Q: What sequence folds into this?
């Protein structure tokens, strides 16, 4: 940190000579840790940890800005191991660098309750920035991080205090770049000039089954260059000085482009019997481990780390903490000088309450008849005002999904604070990028497409649920009510399929007020993602039920929408656009009918046994459910004695109302089923 004549504190790049001798020894020790951990676990992947060791030495021992004692430091450089199967690469370097990953945890690699699982898991291990393993995801997650850092710098840095100056660095392999999601994200990063992203490509010419030439022949450098990236190639991928020079060139580039460093490495380097072959990818080299350790110059002691390596990283940690201390001083000055910005930054870690959120949303007119996607648009605007760090985006469908934040502007290189992302037709990357934004934790991401295309986004949606990321998916055109676009665009199985993902809340609201409750429930939630399933077609406002009851009912997942006026004979269960049919049938049948709206089975299942008994009393076995989708999941709620009206086939191309009638999703058909059932 230096001070200009104006007294303004600024960060300047200081080139510290690299201790090649110390880092060469550290690389040897890291290879030993990987061999010993994979051997002890009798499973794992040796190829990348041994082949990319020098990349790790340069990054963790010289180039990256981090503080092991404060792994979530705002201005840390973000490192993402996209090739998550090589997790011992990351655990080894985190241990050596002084993160809270003990040698015992390294020894516990892949064991029950360890913080060194088979693939890196967010929240489990200090220093792990993303849950990776499904190849390519980490590349797209890194793009999300890069967006978040760009936005943070633009929103929070001032002319006198710069608190965000960090980079995103990822390590990917051939497998990552063969996955389509990676190139979707690469194209996005190039187009939007995310020059704070540095991607190392461990180009060892090997995949699991065979040599990479059996499945790929493209010129990766030219492909990235065509996508708007700067590209360097390090032909000697185990040369510390060459790697450090390439990183410094990428870090200080002024082209305004993201940076790719292609590193030609030898997979499983250090085990001659499998090095450079597909057998080196996994644990095949374990049986040669003792000879390899001897060849590396390691003693017989397993999990050995030399005193020289320990001493080096202790000294390196002190240097890093000096930088951190200077930043803390600047950060304190920034907070004093910018209390409103400081309060906004603090709000990123605050959990908004459901009550506060719904209070910000005006009630809809009683006679409203609008699609829930339109209601969602109306709800989103006051919530975006309430939550200024909420961002949104769409896969080229803003005009249909209606999730544009009015007045928020578009994110682009000339407007880095824009709150609306134009993801293009890249659903997979869109959801993965949103995961990266959520991993960073400053901005609250949401994204949108047609519900049927949730299948394109499902892998990152699953990872969001696994990683407890509060991403909100605003997916519209939720049923056969889509109509004329036909069965390719009518999601009959999609809602139920996503309900099966643990920790993913799936909410399908019935009217505008339930939509208000759905958005508030989604944005209140900070421990997992939420999928909002919204209609294309117009739905009536259920005006004879208090809006507050409908909104609060969504937060519980299910509630009594219409209570019986006499002895309870039958319970009608419905969700989304079919709730109107249940209400109509209840009026026709009379006093013994209860209507229960269950917009979110996941939330309802989390309620107390007492509440669920209050809504669906066990003694009442006569139950009928209706939803314009597959029926299986509803038997959990109607029981063996119950009936389900649904769609256990693909849809048809015709106007939406015609399709609904043809496939039996009408009040008339429901009435026939219920009266026959009660007869």
A:
């Amino acid at each position: 940190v230096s001070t200009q004549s104006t007294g303004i504190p600024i960060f300047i790049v200081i080139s510290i000579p690299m201790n090649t001798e110390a880092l060469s020894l550290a690389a040897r020790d890291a290879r030993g840790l990987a061999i010993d951990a994979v051997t002890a676990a009798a499973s794992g992947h040796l190829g990348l940890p041994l082949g990319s060791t020098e990349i790790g030495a340069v990054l963790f021992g010289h180039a990256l800005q981090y503080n092991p004692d404060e792994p979530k430091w705002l201005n840390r450089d973000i490192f993402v191991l996209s090739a998550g199967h090589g997790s011992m690469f990351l655990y080894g370097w985190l241990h050596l660098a002084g993160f809270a990953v003990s040698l015992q945890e390294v020894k516990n690699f892949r064991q029950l309750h360890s913080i060194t699982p088979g693939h890196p898991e967010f929240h489990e291990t200090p220093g792990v920035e993303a849950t990776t393993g499904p190849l390519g995801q980490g590349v797209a997650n890194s793009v999300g991080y890069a967006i978040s850092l760009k936005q943070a710098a633009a929103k929070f840095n001032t002319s006198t205090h710069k608190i965000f100056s960090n980079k995103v660095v990822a390590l990917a392999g051939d497998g990552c770049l063969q996955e389509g999601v990676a190139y979707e994200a690469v194209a996005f990063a190039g187009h939007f000039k995310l020059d704070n992203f540095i991607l190392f490509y461990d180009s060892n010419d090997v995949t699991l089954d065979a040599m990479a030439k059996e499945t790929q022949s493209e010129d990766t450098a030219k492909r990235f260059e065509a996508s708007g990236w700067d590209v360097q190639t390090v032909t000697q991928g185990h040369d510390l000085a060459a790697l450090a020079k390439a990183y410094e060139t990428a870090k200080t580039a002024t082209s305004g482009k993201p940076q790719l460093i292609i590193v030609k490495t030898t997979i499983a380097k250090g085990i001659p019997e499998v090095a450079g072959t597909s057998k080196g990818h996994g644990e095949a080299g374990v049986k040669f481990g003792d000879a390899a350790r001897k060849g590396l110059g390691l003693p017989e002691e397993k999990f050995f780390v030399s005193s020289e390596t320990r001493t080096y990283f202790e000294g390196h940690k002190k240097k890093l903490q000096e930088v951190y201390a200077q930043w803390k001083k600047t950060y304190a000055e920034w907070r004093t000088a910018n209390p409103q910005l400081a309060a906004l930054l603090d709000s990123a870690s605050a959990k908004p309450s459901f009550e506060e959120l719904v209070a910000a949303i005006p009630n809809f007119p009683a006679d409203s008849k609008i699609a829930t996607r339109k209601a969602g648009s109306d709800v989103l605007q006051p919530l975006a005002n309430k939550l200024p760090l909420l961002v949104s985006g769409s896969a080229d469908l803003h005009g249909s999904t209606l999730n544009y934040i009015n007045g928020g502007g578009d994110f682009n290189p000339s407007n880095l604070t824009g709150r609306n992302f134009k993801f293009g037709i890249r659903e997979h990357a869109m959801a993965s990028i949103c995961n990266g934004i959520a991993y960073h934790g400053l901005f609250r991401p949401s994204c949108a497409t047609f519900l049927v295309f949730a299948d394109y986004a499902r892998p990152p949606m699953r990872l969001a649920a696994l990683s407890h990321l509060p991403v909100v998916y605003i997916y519209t055109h939720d049923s056969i009510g889509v109509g004329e676009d036909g069965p390719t665009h009518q999601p009959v199985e999609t809602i139920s399929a996503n309900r099966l993902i643990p920790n993913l809340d799936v909410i399908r609201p019935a009217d505008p007020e339930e939509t208000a409750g759905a958005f508030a429930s989604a944005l209140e939630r900070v421990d997992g993602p939420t999928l909002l399933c919204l209609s294309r077609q117009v739905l009536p406002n259920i005006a004879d039920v208090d809006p507050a009851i409908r909104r609060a009912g969504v937060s519980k997942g299910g509630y009594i929408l219409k209570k019986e006026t006499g002895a309870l004979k039958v319970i009608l269960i419905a969700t989304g656009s079919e709730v109107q049919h249940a209400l109509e049938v209840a009026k026709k049948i009379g006093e013994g009918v209860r209507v229960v709206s269950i917009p979110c089975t996941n939330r309802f299942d989390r309620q107390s046994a007492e509440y669920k008994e209050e809504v669906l009393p066990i003694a009442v076995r006569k139950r009928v459910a209706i939803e314009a989708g597959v029926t299986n999941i509803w038997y959990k709620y109607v029981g063996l004695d119950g009936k389900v009206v649904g769609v256990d086939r693909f849809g048809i191309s015709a106007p939406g109302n015609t399709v609904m009638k043809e496939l039996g999703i009408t009040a008339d058909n429901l009435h026939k089923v219920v009266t026959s059932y009660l007869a």
Remarks:
- DSSP finds 27 helices and 20 strands in the chain.
- The first strand starts at residue 2 and ends at 3.
